[in-house]
Each structure stands twice: as structure tokens, then as C-alpha cells.
């Protein structure tokens, strides 16, 4: 069995309006900015990245309280944006305000 699980902390830097899929399921997209220091080859490395994230269903409804600047911890899985767009998007399973 293969694994596709990501846990990340960061700051919300962009939020789209809550929308609904054609099936009526709530969907909230946002961008999470992660900054940390990691060890690579026994050396410290500064890590910065912006990650596109999407919350679907109940987690999208609960995520409506997010504002730009909110610090959060999320977990989920990575998949491409669509059949024709290979850009990676983090689909959330959990979201915690920290």
C-alpha cells in the first residue's frame, strides 16, 4: 500500500470565498505559507513554500472562520489540481488553529 500523507504548519496568506461543487458540497480553497528550518545533509536549511490547499465538506464549513494571518496545522494528501492541471494541491483531512 502506498502512502500520501502530509502534515504542515503555516500561515494563511490567501483565502477564496466558500463555494459549492455541482453536487452541493462546500469547498474552501486557500494558500498556506510554511516557513521552518530543516536539517539536510547534516546542515541547517531554511525552508519556505506556499502550498495551495482545499477543504471539502464539513471541514470547509468549519474553515470559514479562517482569516489571513491565521496560524494553522493541517494534514491531508496531495493530488493534482485537475485532470489537465498537474499543479499539486493539499486536500485537507484535518485543520487545527494554533
Q: What is the succession of H and E elements?
A: EEEEHEE
User: Which term fits the overall shape?
Assistant: globular
Helix count? Answer: 1
The profile of the biggest β sheet is: 5 strands, mixed, barrel
Structural class of the helices, strands and pairings? mainly beta
The CATH class, by name, is Mainly Beta
List the helices and strands and how they pair.
Elements (H helix, E strand, L loop, with lengths): L5 E10 L3 E2 L5 E15 L2 E14 L1 H5 L8 E10 L7 E10 L1
Parallel strand pairs: 4-6
Antiparallel strand pairs: 1-3, 1-5, 2-3, 3-4, 5-6
Description of the molecule:
- Strands 1-3-4-6-5 form a five-stranded mixed beta barrel.
- A hairpin with a 7-residue loop joins strand 5 and strand 6 (88-97).
- It has 98 residues and is mainly beta.
- 5% of the residues lie in helices and 62% in strands.
- It has one helix spanning 58-62; strands at 6-15, 19-20, 26-40, 43-56, 71-80, 88-97.
- It has a single domain, classed as Beta Barrel (OB fold (Dihydrolipoamide Acetyltransferase, E2P)).
- The chain has one helix and six strands, in the order E-E-E-E-H-E-E.
Amino acid at each position: 500500500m502506498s502512502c500520501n500523507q502530509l502534515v504542515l504548519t503555516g500561515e494563511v496568506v490567501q483565502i477564496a470565498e466558500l463555494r459549492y461543487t455541482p453536487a452541493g458540497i462546500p469547498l474552501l480553497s486557500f494558500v498556506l505559507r510554511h516557513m521552518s528550518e530543516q536539517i539536510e545533509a547534516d546542515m541547517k536549511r531554511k525552508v519556505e513554500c506556499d502550498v495551495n490547499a482545499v477543504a471539502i465538506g464539513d471541514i470547509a464549513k468549519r474553515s470559514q472562520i479562517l482569516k489571513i494571518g491565521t496560524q494553522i496545522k493541517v494534514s491531508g494528501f496531495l493530488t493534482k489540481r485537475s485532470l489537465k492541471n498537474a499543479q499539486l494541491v493539499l486536500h485537507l483531512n484535518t485543520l487545527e488553529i494554533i
